[in-house]
Amino acid sequence: MRILITGASGVIGRILIPVLVAKGYEVGGMTKSQEKASLLQQLGAIPFVANIFEKEQVQKVFQQFQPDAIIHQVTALSNLSVEENAMARTIGTRHVAEAAKEVNVRRFIAQSIAWAYEPGTTIATEKDSLDVQAIGKRKMTIDGIVALENAVQEMSNAIILRYGVLYGPGTWYAPDGMMAQQFISGKAIVNDGVTSFIHIEDAVHATVQALDWKEGIYNIVDDTPATGRDWGTKYAHHLQAPIPIYQSGKAGWERGASNRKAKLEGGWTLVYPSWQEGFLSE
Predict the structure, then answer these.
(1) Which of 168, 193, 244, 261 could link 200 by a cystine bridge, Cβ 3.0 to 4.6 Å?
(2) Distances from the Cα of 270 to the Cαs of 12, 42, 80, 106, 257, in angstroms?
(3) Domains in the chain and their CATH numbers?
(4) Average pLDDT, stretch 106-119?
């Protein structure tokens, strides 16, 4: 099977490529950076340089590689721009989906997020609606997710993986990451909102296994949703950082998510069932 990864030089792609290659897949990696193309080659992928916002460039990659499956991992978070990230999900995903149709891709797997659900009082499942009534910057994020998921679901055999908050090597929660630095500097603020985490290694394993899953939407999160006060205190202790600033209350959408479907229907198992174990692995 020939698998094309978009956003291949990102935190998931860098781990995903060697895993797929070791399983015998022929892997293509798409990146917008010529510099990162050499990294993809070192990891075992055939590199392709293309800007996700340039439709013709994306089409050319698909025509050249002729993938059987797509793993769509494009984000635009390097400069922390919510707007650019939403555009990547909206415009970029549309270009990828149209190019995939042209070459008759048989399986389309796409990255989404597990904190996009509407407000509620229970842990969110895949049956819950997305937060389409959101306002402000969150609305921009949700609109991008809705556009991404709609474009992907136009494909046959489409899988949407709604990842929890990623942590582990290369993420914001790594010891040298942005969130870790906020905690170390004593600037971190936590509340009663519930978060579902997922270790980067478990996210990669789920993505590989999803090549054989039934089409649909799956939450890819760990077993233990946690309040900010809980995980923040333990994370700070692990970093030997000051206890974070606590502010009571939470937003209605800060509810966490259930991984029951991925475990029961996909047979997915976790290396790190809880963030408490995962944080200690750093």
Answers:
(1) 168
(2) 16, 28, 29, 27, 15
(3) 2-166+199-222+257-271 (3.40.50.720)
(4) 97
